[in-house]
Structure formats: C-alpha cells, structure tokens
C-alpha cells in the first residue's frame, strides 16, 4: 500500500505519518528528514540546508532523484507513506511516471486553519521555524503544493481529515478513512 500525506507545514503530517506507518507496517518516507540528515560538510548539504532555512523548496531534480532512490530500498517494497513529497506538480508527474500502473492507493489531506499553523510552527523551534521562513513556507504551500489536491481528486483516492484535536484521535480517523 502506498499513501501520500498532504497538508500545510504545521498540520502534523510527520507525527501522523509515523503513527499510521507503524499501524500498517509501512516505511515512513520523509524528504524533509532526508534533507535534514545531509551533512553541511558537503557541497550538496550546504546548498540544501541553506534553501531549507529560507523556507523555499529544494529544486525538483535533486528531490525527485533522492526520493526515487529511497523508495527502491528494501524496507519500502511492502509499501510506504510519503510525507512531504511530492510538493510541486513536476514532482507529482515524475512520481506518476515512476510508479506507472502501481500508483498511489490513498491521499490523506490534513486540514488545519492557518492561524493555528502559525502558532504551532512558531512554538516548534526547528532550525527553519523562524518567522520569515514560516511565512515563506505557508506561501509556497498555497502556491505550489495545495494544487496537488486537484491533481489527485479525479482518481477518487483523496480523503480530507480534520487535523485539530487529540493526536491519537486524528490517527484513528486517518486509519478509519484508509480502511473504509
Ligand atoms: P518538511 O520537513 O517536510 O517540512 O520539509 C522541510 C524543508 O525541506 C522544506 O521547507 C523544503 O525546503 C525542503 N523539502 C522537503 N521536501 C521537499 C520537496 N518534496 N521538494 C522540495 N523541497 C522539499
């Protein structure tokens, strides 16, 4: 089973993806985690970490190459949850081409009001959670990533989940939506 988690920064994608992946025995694939693990001792690492700090997106080519290599690893062969990829239409189209007939089974969209997102992101204290970067990331989401919902909607695989409230209750609603 292959599931994509979509939603704005701060919606709780990472937290929910970890819990739902563990419930279904799927690999958790997060491009953000993969980028954060890059060393600033390398040219690529320095370039990517600087882009992340600004809140902009890492170029599609770099991201797609890294993601495709990741989902070919052994632990992803029984399925995975994509958390933070694709984020642009070009990435979604590359993924469609890469998966072919073996396409995504579910798209989970986590919905949280924008004023709550800003509060959560400012409270989180990650290296890229400065006020400027938070504003940039919310704008980038609305411009580049939110349109992906319309890309997947015609396939009938999109489930909208209310992302406010108790973490375990939200996990249960996601699992129920996937199993129904
Ligand atoms: P995340 O942990 O998903 O919030 O990602 C943190 C940062 O990593 C983003 O703000 C981007 O700079 C970068 N990033 C993660 N995933 C992608 C992606 N699919 N395409 C481009 N940049 C990404």
A few lines on this structure:
This protein is an alpha/beta fold and 180 residues long. The protein is built from 9 helices and 5 strands; from the N terminus they run E-H-E-H-H-H-E-H-E-H-H-H-E-H.
Characterize the structure shown:
The protein is an alpha/beta fold. It has one domain (2-179): Rossmann fold (3-Layer(aba) Sandwich). It has nine helices and five strands. The protein has a five-stranded parallel beta sheet with strand order 2-3-1-4-5. Helix 1 packs across helix 9 and helix 6 crosses helix 7. It is globular and about 45 Å long. The site of adenosine monophosphate has 15 residues, from helix 2 and helix 3.
Essential attributes:
5-stranded parallel beta sheet, alpha/beta, 54% helix, 180 residues, 5 strands, single chain, binds adenosine monophosphate, Rossmann fold
Taking all Cα atoms into account, the compactness measure Rg is: 16 Å
The amount of helix comes to 40-55%
Q: Count of DSSP E strands?
A: 5
CATH class: Alpha Beta
Strand fraction equals 5-15%
Topology as H/E string?
EHEHHHEHEHHHEH
Mean of all residue-level pLDDT scores: 96
Mind describing the biggest β-sheet? Answer: 5 strands, parallel
Order of strands side by side in the largest beta sheet? 2-3-1-4-5
Distinct bound molecules: adenosine monophosphate
What topology emerges from the helices and strands here?
Elements lengths: L1 E5 L6 H12 L2 E4 H6 L6 H12 L5 H11 L9 E4 L5 H11 L6 E6 L2 H11 L6 H15 L1 H6 L5 E5 L4 H13 L1
Parallel strand pairs: 1-3, 1-4, 2-3, 4-5
Bound molecules: adenosine monophosphate (AMP).
């Amino acid at each position: 089973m292959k599931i994509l988690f979509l939603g704005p920064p701060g919606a709780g994608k990472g937290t929910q993806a970890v819990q739902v992946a563990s419930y279904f025995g799927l690999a958790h694939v997060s491009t953000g985690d993969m980028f954060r693990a890059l060393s600033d001792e390398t040219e690529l690492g320095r370039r990517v970490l600087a882009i992340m700090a600004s809140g902009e997106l890492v170029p599609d080519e770099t991201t797609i190459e890294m993601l495709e290599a990741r989902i070919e690893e052994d632990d992803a062969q029984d399925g995975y949850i994509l958390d933070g990829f694709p984020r642009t239409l070009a990435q979604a189209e590359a993924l469609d081409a890469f998966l072919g007939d073996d396409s995504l089974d579910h798209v989970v969209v986590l919905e949280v009001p924008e004023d709550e997102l800003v509060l959560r992101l400012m409270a989180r204290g990650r290296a890229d959670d400065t006020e400027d970067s938070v504003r940039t990331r919310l704008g980038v989401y609305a411009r580049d990533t939110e349109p992906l919902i319309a890309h997947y909607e015609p396939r009938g695989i999109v489930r909208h989940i209310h992302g406010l409230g108790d973490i375990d209750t939200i996990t249960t609603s996601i699992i129920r939506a996937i199993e129904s």
